[in-house]
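User: two proteins, same treatment. go.

Assistant:
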Amino acid sequence: MTLTTPIVNDFDNIFPGENWFFYWKTASSLWEEKLATTDDFDSIVIPLNWGFHSETGDKFDFGQDKPEANLVKLVEIIQKLNKKVSFLIPVGPAPYLANGGIPYLLAKEPSFYHQQVWLSLDGEKQMHKMFSFYEPKVFKGFQKFITTFKNYLVEQKLQVSVLGFSPFFAHASKIISYFEDSSPSYEQAFKRFLEGQGNKQITLKSIDEERIVHTEFRRNLKDLYEESFKEIIGEYWDGKLNICFLGGSPHNFVNRSFGKEDELGYFKDMLQVCALNMLPSTVLLGQERSELLQDVSKSYFVDILASEKINENFYEDDTPLIFSRLNLFSLFIQPGQHFQAIWQKSYSPLHLLEQRYQGTYLFLEHTKEKYQNVINDERNRSIHFFLAQYFDLDIFHSIIKLFMHGKQIIIDINNISETFARKLEAFFIENKLEVQKVNFHTIVRSVSLGDGQIILYSSQPLEVLDRKSINDFWQKILSLFTFKHPEVTGDSGVIEYWLERSPLNSELNFESIRRVTLCNVVSYKQKATIKFPKSFLVLKIVDEQNAKVKIDNGVLDIAFSSKGSVSIEFGFIDEY
């Protein structure tokens, strides 16, 4: 079903974004001609279309009947063009595919979100109804498809990597999984889950308890799909991604059905997605996306993919001119926790970070690998936020290690357990560390050792403060650290994002090279101002499009016309 009549653009349909190639949307005889036009990166992402290779879920076509299903030919063409191949397989409903990707005869039970059938629009404004992955036949069919695909790779001796991904969408400052479901299939599966508890039969006594059990069940089944996929695909496994599809929410579905674009909303969603270290994708937007949105999304997509070391060949080369996201702040959560419930409270630092340090903060799950990466990275000058109420021994020892390695840490000690309160005080006493105190809305304590610094505060007294007082509090806290960052102010339609890279040999006076890109994502004029401290030196202004820049005495004034953008590179002298 098509809700509107789109202008056909073959390139957008086949290459919908982020270097994805929809092989089933063009004749196999044209594959080489189309693929030869892609020169941005040396890897091509091939999202596998389960339903295209099997209508029944029982028999599979890999070129026997449809030439466009011949993956061997496709891989050979890509490798002939000196590009690498990564197959991408959705573990859950894929909003860009008919039936969410499920073969026609297995698509029996529609998936529901808040009692409404899941619907999505792809880049051609084709409407797709998605079907439940909680149906037992779908799980068995998925296993059979992955097994058949794995055997096909082995038989054909294809040298490729295979990535799994979980699909998400953004809505109302939340990132929501397409695995969310309230269909009859889900309810029946949940009932079987409760019945299967045996002697541990769950009795749901409250709405909150029921919500927790539902969340656990969804996570368990999602993990079952992912673990089964990983086990079956074996040596071809190259990792799992979390991909958020811009324009994929039910709210976006309604707006896009009537031709209403929300470019500003897409940009804001993308920054939020990247803060979670998830991959943003514009493949649903087609011609709705601007060139600017496409370029920024592709930059983030490739950067996050490379930073996760899932596919190290996504960059064209290893020159130091490659920029990556600037990360000034890290907010830690435990695996499985939802960041909204933890860091979006009115008194948290997140509101100031969104306002003053747009796009420079990151949510990180607490894992030993993440901590070790932070410790090993000597250039990491992030300020790390923790909530003491979630402390366990592993987290506590990791924080001490970070501190001993010269890292900067802020801890909310509200609701800290007596055990860890004593451990923290014992650590200060045993190491003869001086504790400095100041009273500013709440008692703030500061402890230093070499370059390392810990700030302790309790958020409880902040709960009654207004927004301005809370922002003033966090500005004061951040001033206790020596880091510097330019102050960007702009009209509501201006989006900013920051990148950094290592200096070249000719730039060794600088700790790093930082680039800010400012984009006017609305169709009318906007203004922005950048005030930068003496530790930042303007090196060059690049990619000026519909924008004029004036610089005077440490201030950059920028005037944007419609859809204007500009990038400014600074040399940063670390005073830390």
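Protein 2:
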Amino acid sequence: MPRPGAARLAPPDWLTESLRPQAAPVPWAAVARASVALSAPLAVGTATGRPAYGALVSMGALSAVIGDTADAYRMRVFNIAVPQLFGALGVLLGSLVYGTGWTAVTVLTLVALVSGMISSIGAVASASGLLLLLNAAVGAGLPLPSPWWLPPGLLLLGGLVVLALTLLAWPLRLGLPERSVVADTYRTVADLLEATGTAEYDARRRELTKSLNHSYDLLLARRARRHGRSPTLVRLLAQLNAAIPVVEAASAAHLRPAGAGPLPAAYPAAVRALADAVEQGRTGPAPQPGLPEPAGPSTRALVEAIGHAATVVFEAAPDPYAAADRLGRPAGLEVRARRAARALLLSGASWRYGLRLALCIGLAQVLVSVIAVPRSYWVTLTVTFVMKPDFGSVFSRAVLRALGTAAGLLIAAPVLAAVPRGWWDVPVMAALAALIPALSAKGYAFQTAAITPVILLLSDLLNHQGFHLVPPRLYDSLIGCGITLLAGYLLWPESWHARIGDRLADAVQDTASYVSLAFTTGPGGDEPARAWYRRRLYRDLSAVRSEFQRALTEPPPVGARAQAWWPLVIAVERIVDATTATRVRIEHGAPGPTAAEVGAVTRELADLAETLRTGRPLPAAAPDALAPDGALARLHHEVHAARSVAAPAP
């Protein structure tokens, strides 16, 4: 029986949520690649009597291993190569100001400003900014071999090792990653069909949204880097688009009347067969899916959607200009470069983050310059890793960084104390490096615990401190976390007054626009516009959900506010699903709504968005605008549920 005070001593929910390991399979290929890429340079360095050179190559490989997160090979080349170039520039700048005192403080502060600003452009730019600052801190804090070009060259060599290992299978797997993600999306659609009419449907719908986002990102990003339209990519994009009507029909099937029962197993089985065809690249006449006779508008829509998908999947050469991109076609390189420059120089968010990061790095460098902190680069490294708001909550990352570092030091202590330097470093590094991909998918604290002993072992090869490296690393990490919490979190009101209400209000307003668009045109009218708007809305809701999940890991008041509004996020997702389902049913024979019904629903959603944005009381709904058995009855039920959640919200 628990003691009376046990509940008060329990850790807060935001911390336990952050520490809970995420369910993810072990990426065995990445594990093997990391093990070889980080240990092989040490073996070469030991054999040639240059262990410090081997350590620098392994350090470059470590950065590439962490950044290798894409699926398609062309994207992996881009994701590895570009950040490595910025990392080489960073170590060059840092080594030039090594031991220069206040000059190093000034240079690292300016590098932090640039790093923070370019991080707002996109994922690859964020990784590039991270490596720029991290390697500048290493170069300014560690004595590196001369001449000046050698450390950047060795780091780039480490990245090339990872890139070479990554591309070994490219000739054998050309195009397979793209086909695999599209096939996985089809399998996720089949899972959604199995869950229709059950409590599992909402969770499966969210998984499908993630899968669709990932597939579109991969295909459109690759196509944006090619001139013209690749037949392979056009076919994959057409196959991915063909899955969307099946998803919409699944929404209608989920909202069938009570007592309709689960969908027959033939529906998900037919979609899984299409997934296998996509993955194997099969072409030819489309086989008949063999589906049951439709029993109403929902199943009629489902049969037609699966039949259409089968035709597209087996089509060898679809029209290159008939495949709509759903999210818009990617702009040209010149246009995107101008947009990135504007985002970098004119965006308030870019400047705010750059200034926050520069302030934290400047304070860290001033502190270690005024107070003798051995190997002070670790303080700056800690600040850099924690101050990445695009990677998650700054507050929780500071706490998790401290906990992860402590766990990593427990691993590193016996290694540095008992393992002799030399050839023993190679198998030890092979084992430690393998933990990085395996644990990174589990969460930030687990990734930190895996990376910490690797960095300590590489640092020891450069400055030969042995076990004496361990205790200062914990102190330095705590100092870096403290600086980040004070100067990068508490001093900025936007940190603890997150604008989650505004983001949610925008999503609700967009949902109102989608309802109006869905029901103010006739059957089949302006379907491309509806499809584009619906796809964008689902993506935006996924981003809102991610932002709320991040806010849930913050301490009060942000975490408490996010927890209070979390049911409303779910309710808005259901409204979008109900809108899609109702539109599908109308297109397949169900009666349509009147203009008064559509206007009533959109007004109620607009009122809800205004309440979330301003905090004013929610106006009462018009009592007689919607008939209880009207075409929009189910949609109005979901809107009413959302308004009920929002009514008591602050």
